[in-house]
Amino acid sequence: MSPWKYTNPNKFMSFSGTILPVLSVLSFALIFTGLIWGFFFTPDDFRQGSTVKIIYLHVPAALVAVNTWFVMLIGSLVWVVRRHHISSLIAKAAAPIGLTMTLVTLATGAIWGKPMWGTFWAWDPRLTSFLILFFFYLGYLALWKSIQDQQKVSDLTALLCIVGTVFALLSRYAVNFWNQGLHQGASLSLDKEENIANIFYWPLLVCISGFILFFITVLLIRTRTEIRLKQASAILVTKNLN
Amino acid sequence: MPELGQYANSVIGAYLVSFLIIGFFLVRTLIKSYRAKKNLTQLTASLKKFNR
């Protein structure tokens, strides 16, 4: 069973239509559980007080914001190599989700930063690379809207995505490269000793799982929309030719 | 409601802003999806009529 069969729009629509209800219920259940658990049933942090509760939105949003760009990168590379239209549509569908999550990350980060650092913003490596990532998302979406020729715009946006991956990587790993800056280190790590305390870790993990499933759910909905728009424009072309 | 202390405004503000941004985006996504589906259904029906 090859995964490439889902590059056929009809097979993709059929498969995604089947799993969407389950994914949407599961994602909302996990987000709801994680947020309720984190907000109501975890203590304040000894340094950050109750602002630590912002972590259950800020960190999952940041993870999705960065990893959405990598999903777009995979879609773009598949388009460049194999020219499957679905892959470029998936990249196009993912971008607004990444933009939204980057905005949530920047907004919650600014609100969190004010009481902790005394400022809404600082030109910290991690914050700055996230802001650049936000502008890359805006640029990517603007490029899709600016060119009518579908082949050309898929090629150009794929190129932009490949170039912008540098900033997505910087956003993810900036804290490892630079020791200066206000932003704290990773909340989650493969090294158990670097993780936040278990009492915050488990509800955070539930929230992250919920956000990931939310991303997949919305990505499928948006990709299905793009496929329908493409089919509609093909029908209009057929009608005009006749 | 947990005791949020001096940071209550920041915490509630962060949650409100996040729900607003994500909520607005989700509603837009669903509306666009509904319109695209409706439009395609109408176009497919009109094409079938046209081809008879």
Describe this structure as you would to a colleague:
The complex is a heterodimer of chains A (242) and B (52). Chain A is an all-alpha fold and 242 residues long. Chain A has one domain (29-241). Chain A contains six helices and no strands. Chain A has helices spanning 9-41, 55-82, 85-117, 125-146, 150-177, 198-241. The radius of gyration of chain A is 20 Å and the shape is globular. The mean pLDDT of chain A is 88. Chain B is mainly α and 52 residues long. Chain B has a domain at 25-52. Chain B is 85% helix and 0% strand. Chain B has one helix spanning 8-51. The longest helix of chain B has 44 residues, at 8-51. The mean pLDDT of chain B is 91. The A-B interface holds A 39-40, 44, 49-51, 53-54, 57-58, 61, 96-97, 100, 103-104, 107-108, 111-112, 114-115, 218, 221-222, 224-225, 228-229, 231-232, 235-236, 238-239, 242 and B 2-8, 10-11, 13-15, 17-18, 21-22, 25-26, 29-30, 32-33, 36-37, 39-40, 43-44, 46-47, 50.
Any key phrases for this structure?
heterodimer; A: mainly alpha; 78% helix; B: 52 residues; 85% helix; 0% strand; rod-shaped
Number of helices of chain A: 6
Strand content of chain B: under 5%
- Strand segment count of chain A: 0
Weakly predicted, low-confidence segments of chain B? none
3D shape of chain A: globular
Strand content of chain A: under 5%
Give the rounded overall mean pLDDT of chain B. 91
Number of strands of chain B: 0
Shape of chain B: rod-shaped
Round the Cα radius of gyration of chain B to an integer and report it. Answer: 22 Å
Q: Can you give the helix content of chain A as a percent range?
A: over 70%
Structural class of chain A: mainly alpha
Greatest contact between two chains = A-B, 36 and 31 residues
**Distance separating the two termini of chain B:** 64 Å
Distance between the termini of chain A: 39 Å
| Uncertain stretches of 5 or more adjacent residues of chain A | none
Oligomer: heterodimer
Average pLDDT level of chain A: 88
